């Protein structure tokens, strides 16, 4: 499918979909995207080295990368096997290993997404139809779980704002509500009352149209594995991972702030915004530091908005982040 | 089977049972999956769960003895308690060394500001004197006070289970509920036993008075 892609901010095309060993030849694309858009990706040399090493090709030394804000970033891109075997996706079970074990019988094809609510163009959109008009991009983002561990993931997908624009929100639309598929026959976790199903998440409209917000269809240049939220998930890298809802079947433009699943369950622990913030602790643990996986020690200092303050900070300028956690 | 053989067998079963989680973990680290992406979380959950489970098993010893009249079983109680303490120590070590990178300020903040950590820390602190005084020498030296001191195992178990429950993310079905039910049952039998014992002594005392009269 898709894949012939350009950065929306630059004219350098990315290559065709490729096996991973040459995947990172798209260095120019990544560099251009990072440079042009000020995206917090890692410098392309380090990305290439990191991914090469992860995939077992060559023993190139690691070049410390740099994020666009100039902050040194020593993060490696996390290995594919860790990204795909350590998942919080309770639809397939509450244990981190459950999704990889149980997602085999999930069938994400064909897939359609219902767009509804306060918009001009509601309807059921096939996945291809939803993606095709957009440039598919590869972006490397930090991923910070509310449980204080983190990964660095090369996602593939499209800007969420393209889909929002196509839906054409009315003036009443202030929030976007997302819903995960409910298929207890294919998702064994949904047969138990682990969470109130289906899983719900939400964004404010300005967050949903921020340049960093992505609808993801793949990682490491491949289609998204079932356990990572196939075939379509959200990625909002400045927020804790639970905001990045998986296997989306419904996108609603709404007037009121949606009640997201974890807030519904534990409102004193999980809020609506869930912005990564080293100064606002979880009631049961500090968020000041995180454990880059795979690794033993919680050694990395967590950054405000997960290091993406430059791109997203302005949206929260007047907000008390301790109150709106 | 004579009493010696019985005791030997009992000890072997207890050792194997309490040591199995350790062997299993060593196997996973050395020959298995290497604990995957997040070994610290794996080690934390494994050591904590095993510690509290063995502690509850050790609390089951006395009720089992009273119920069955099999006095030998009492001989493995101390060993089980020490195994529970061992796993609890691993739990604290993994937390302090890996999770908190030995940063004392972070550890203090954690313990003082978060009930979840405070409760767990308190449980461990209560177990410390019990482990230290578990030798024959200390048992002799403390005499009746040894029993009084080791009563601390009850608050330790309550706090340990509470820490476990507080650590649950959302799903309180299954393990966590079972844990709480088992603890309640173990404490319940003791209360029941104490009440019966009291009423018995009460009765026999009044009986003695009656016969005097």
Quick summary:
The complex is a heterodimer of chains A (325) and B (213). Chain A is of the alpha+beta class and 325 residues long.
Task: Describe the protein's architecture and organization.
The complex is a heterodimer of chains A (325) and B (213). In chain A, helix 2 packs across helix 3. Chain A is an alpha+beta fold and 325 residues long. With 213 residues, chain B is mainly alpha-helical. The longest helix of chain B is centred in the C-terminal third of the chain and has 38 residues. The termini of chain B are far apart. Chains A and B meet through loops of A and helix 2 and helix 4 of B.
Q: Secondary-structure blueprint of this entry?
A:
The complex is a heterodimer of chains A (325) and B (213).
Chain A: H1 20-23, H2 27-37, H3 44-54, E1 65-66, E2 72-73, H4 80-83, H5 98-102, E3 112-117, E4 123-126, H6 127-131, E5 137-144, E6 149-159, H7 160-167, E7 175-180, E8 200-204, H8 205-208, E9 214-219, E10 222-223, E11 233-235, E12 248-254, H9 261-265, E13 289-292, E14 300-301, H10 309-312
Parallel strand pairs in A: 3-12, 6-13
Antiparallel strand pairs in A: 1-2, 3-4, 5-6, 6-9, 7-8, 7-12, 9-10, 9-11, 13-14
Chain B: H1 3-30, H2 39-68, H3 77-99, H4 104-113, H5 115-132, H6 136-142, H7 144-150, H8 153-166, H9 175-212
Helix pairs in contact in B: 1-3, 2-3, 2-8, 2-9, 3-5, 4-5, 5-8, 6-7, 8-9
Low-confidence stretches of chain B: 207-213
Number of helical elements of chain B: 9
Share of residues in helices of chain B: over 70%
* Percent of residues in β-strands of chain B: under 5%
What is the global morphology of chain B? globular
Instruction: Return the average pLDDT of chain B rounded to an integer.
Output: 89
- Count of extended strands of chain B: 0
What's the quaternary structure here? Answer: heterodimer
Are there runs of chain A of 5+ residues with pLDDT below 50, and where? Answer: 1-48, 50-74
Binned, the helix content of chain A reads 10-25%
Q: What radius of gyration of chain B results from the CA coordinates? A: 20 Å
What sort of overall outline of chain A do the alpha carbons produce when their principal axes are compared? globular
Tell me the total number of β-strands of chain A: 14
Structural class of chain A: alpha+beta
Q: In angstroms, what separates the terminal alpha carbons of chain A?
A: 39 Å
For the record, give the distance between the C-alpha atoms at the N and C termini of chain B, rounded to a whole number.
50 Å
């Amino acid at each position: 499918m898709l894949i012939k892609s350009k950065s929306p901010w630059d004219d350098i095309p990315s290559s065709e979909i490729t096996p991973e060993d040459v995947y990172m030849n798209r260095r120019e694309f990544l560099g251009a995207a990072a440079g042009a858009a000020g995206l917090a990706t890692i410098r392309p040399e380090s990305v290439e080295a990191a991914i090469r090493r992860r995939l077992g090709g060559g023993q190139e030394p690691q070049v410390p990368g740099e994020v666009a804000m100039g902050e040194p970033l020593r993060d490696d891109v996390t290995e594919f096997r860790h990204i795909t075997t350590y998942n919080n996706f309770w639809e397939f079970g509450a244990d981190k290993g459950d999704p990889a074990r149980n997602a085999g019988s999930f069938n994400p094809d064909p897939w359609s997404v219902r767009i509804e609510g306060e918009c001009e163009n509601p309807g059921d959109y096939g996945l291809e139809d939803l993606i095709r008009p957009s440039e598919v991009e590869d972006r490397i983002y930090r991923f910070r779980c509310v449980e204080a561990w983190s990964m660095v993931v090369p996602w593939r997908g499209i800007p969420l704002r393209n889909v929002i624009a196509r839906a054409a929100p009315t003036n009443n639309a202030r929030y976007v509500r997302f819903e995960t598929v409910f298929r207890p026959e294919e998702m064994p976790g949904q047969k138990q009352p682990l969470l109130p199903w289906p899983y719900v998440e939400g964004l404010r409209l300005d967050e949903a149209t921020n340049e960093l917000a992505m609808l993801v269809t793949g990682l490491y240049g491949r289609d998204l594995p079932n356990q990572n939220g196939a075939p379509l998930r959200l990625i909002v890298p400045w927020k804790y991972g639970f905001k990045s809802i998986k296997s989306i079947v419904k996108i609603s433009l709404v007037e009121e702030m949606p009640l997201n699943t974890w807030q519904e369950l534990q409102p004193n622990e999980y809020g609506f915004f869930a912005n990564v913030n080293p100064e606002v602790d979880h009631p049961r643990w500090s968020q000041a530091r995180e454990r880059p996986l795979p690794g033993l020690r919680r050694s990395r200092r967590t950054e405000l908005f997960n290091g993406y303050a430059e791109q997203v900070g302005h949206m929260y300028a007047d907000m008390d982040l301790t109150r709106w956690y | 089977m004579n009493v010696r053989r019985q005791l030997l067998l009992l000890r072997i079963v207890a050792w194997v049972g309490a040591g199995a989680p350790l062997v299993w973990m060593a196997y996973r680290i050395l020959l298995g999956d290497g604990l995957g992406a997040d070994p610290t979380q794996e080690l934390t959950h494994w050591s904590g769960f095993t510690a509290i489970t063995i502690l509850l098993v050790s609390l089951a010893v006395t009720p089992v003895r009273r119920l069955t009249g099999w006095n030998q079983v009492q001989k493995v109680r101390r060993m089980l308690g020490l195994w529970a303490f061992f796993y609890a120590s691993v739990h604290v070590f993994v937390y302090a060394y890996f999770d908190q990178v030995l940063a004392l300020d972070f550890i203090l903040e954690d313990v003082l500001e978060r009930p979840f950590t405070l409760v767990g820390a308190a449980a461990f602190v209560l177990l410390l004197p019990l482990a230290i005084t578990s030798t024959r020498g200390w048992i002799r030296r403390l005499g009746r006070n040894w029993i009084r001191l080791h009563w601390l195992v009850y608050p330790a178990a309550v706090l340990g289970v509470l820490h476990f429950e507080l650590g649950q993310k959302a799903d309180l079905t299954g393990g966590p509920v079972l844990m709480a039910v088992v603890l309640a049952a173990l404490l319940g039998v003791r209360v029941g036993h104490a009440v019966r014992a009291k009423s018995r002594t009460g009765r026999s005392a009044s009986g003695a008075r009656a016969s005097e009269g």
